[in-house]
Write the structure tokens for this entry.
Amino acid sequence: MNQLSTKKMNQLLKKKKKGFTLVELIIVIAIIAILVALAIPKFGEIIENTNTKADQATAKNIATIVAQQIADGQKLSTAEVKDGDTTVYNKLDGNKLPKAKAANGSTTFTYNVDDDGNITVSYTGSKEEVYPDYSAKVKKAATPTS
């Protein structure tokens, strides 16, 4: 009988333990929580930058269409881009009304052509210009070049 219990003990010692301990699982969960806490603010920043870039691209398309219309001889001044607008709306890809994504409260764009022929595009109901992007030019001018 003693030999049988010794044999059983040897078999138990030879078996490898499988699985994770509770401490190992808690450490892995803590590491994942730290990584998520670092990633979420960056993810929000990326979405905000993407919306801003999308608005700038849309505004540039609107400015290009307005410049084309001026070159074709139309007299343009200030107007909102809206459904049925024969100047800009019908020339946009897919004839879809462009929606402002990064604007606070505004959903459309307004273009303005001054007396010198300069074209600016801003959010409707706002003074914030989307095109040309003067804020990027100011940042470039402010950084000293070596």
Residues 24 and 30 are 10 Å apart (CA to CA).
